[in-house]
Structure formats: C-alpha cells, structure tokens
Amino acid sequence: MTDPLIVEFEVDSPPGHAFDVWTTRCATWWPPSHTVSGDPAAITFEPHAGGRIVERAPGGEEHDWGRVLDWEPPRRLRYLWHLFFDPSEATEVEVTFSEGSAGTVVRLEQRGWDRLGEAGPPRRAKTEQVWTLIGTRFADACG
Amino acid sequence: MVTEPLHRSALDALGDPNRRAIVEILSGGGRSVQQIADELPISRPAVSRHLRLLKEAGLVSDQADGNRRIYGLRDEGVEAIRAYFEQVWSQAAARFRIVAENTK
At residue A86, what are phi and psi to the nearest 5 degrees? Predict the structure, then answer.
C-alpha cells in the first residue's frame, strides 16, 4: 500500500478566495509544462459534483483531466485526476481550505496509487487509445 | 518555459508509446534488452535508448546477470510516479501562493 501524498501550505488570503483561485484560475498557477498542450488557454473545473476538469488548448481542443466528486466551496474539493493516465487509472485528490494564522491552510491529499500498480500488465485496447492520443503531443509539449 | 530535470522524469518517460510498451512488458517481470526488442517493432539500440530514459525517470532499474543486464520496473514504477507528482504539486503550490496572495 502506497501512502497518500500530502502537500500542505499556507496562503495569505481567506479560504473563499483560495478556493476560487484553485478552481477558477487554475491555468494561472498550474505549471504549464505539466499540461497536454504546454500552454493552456484555460483549465476549468465545472462547479458541481460530476463536473469535468478540462484543459482547453490555444487551438480550442479539450483535454479531460478528471471529474469533480465533491464541490463544497469554500472549504473542500475532491476530484478524480487522471492527467497522463487512462481514466480507469485515476488517482483521487482532496483539497481542503481551512482558516490558519496567516490566512488559509491548503491541504492536498492525493491517494489511490495502488491502482496504478495494476496499470502495466493488461494491454487494454482502451488504455492504448488514450495513451496514443496523449502520447506524442504530450511528449512534445513536455520536452 | 520548462525546466530540464522534470523532463527527464516520469513525464517524458510516459509520453512515448514505445516506452509505455516497455513498461508494460517489464511489468510481467525482468527482461534483457534483446528480450524486450524481440517483442517490439523497434531496434535494440532504440530499446536501449528508451531504457536509459526510463532509468533516469526512476521507473526502471537494471542489474547484471552474467554478461548481460536485466531490466525491471522499480517498485512497479508507482513510487516514481508518486514522487513525480510530489514535485509537480510543490511547484504548483508555490505558484498558487503567488497568485492567491496577489489577487483579490
């Protein structure tokens, strides 16, 4: 069992603002080198459970990154995250925004790593398709 | 725009269909370069090149077996991918703070 990945940090602004920046201005802070296009026009969280997380490339193409599971502004957000992977191999990300001495404590937990351990063996046609789609463009974008 | 170390990591490694195929083959157990090349439509030198990248990315390790080397997945690659994400999130967190603290 691989432990969840936990990242915690504090920002000097209220939780509501932090939640908004996280979800509505993602393209301004997510490292562009870790996107499919390398230079996304927008990264959007559809603001409800079941909503898509989508990168929009400058040319207008859309790349699905995941799905919103819980949408609870301004305190909590949980989503499935499969950027670089087939959706069936998604990990789960939970972000909480709580009041701290300097503003907001942002705590991110990413879990479900063990599912990726099974990603290798089966040569599933589905996986292959998605990989092919992401593949070359992604490699080009990243390096 | 992009920095060198991250490219040489899991991303670069997983962005290529041949390297993904190699990772899939190795998930079935250790193999020599020749054994891997036999299963793929690419040359042995090409396989070696991909293995070198996968090794740098932390996804693959190798060990000597007589006069050849056997390649295998390192912790099934999972820990390497997790470490990769840790790097990405740290970078994202630093950028997030700057945006959140300079906007209203």
Answer: -70, 145
Position A99 scores a pLDDT of: 96
Lookup result for tokens 């967190």: B93
CA distance B20 to B26: 10
Q: Distance, in angstroms, between B5 CA and closest chain A CA?
A: 10
- Tell me if A30 and B92 make a contact (CB, 8 A cut-off): yes
Amino acid in the structure at residue A75: R
**pLDDT tens digit string along B9-65?**
666 677 777 887 888 788 778 999 999 999 999 999 999 999 998 888 778 889 999
Are A88 and A126 spatial neighbours (Cβ–Cβ below 8 Å)? Answer: yes
Nearest to A123 among B24, B76, B90 (CB): B24
Contact B99 A21 (CB under 8 A): yes
* DSSP label of A3: P
Does A110 contact B85 at a Cβ distance shorter than 8 Å? yes
Q: Which residue has the tokens 């859309």?
A: A62
Separation between Cα atoms, residue B64 and residue B82, nearest integer Å: 27
Nearest-10 crossing angle of helices A15-24, B78-101: 120
A55: chain B residues, CB-CB within 8 Å: none
Measured between beta carbons, the chain A residues lying within 8 angstroms of B8 are 143
Q: What would the pLDDT profile of A56-100 be if each residue is shown by its tens digit?
A: 999 999 999 999 999 999 999 999 988 766 677 788 999 999 999
CB of B23 within 8 Å of a chain A CB? The answer is yes
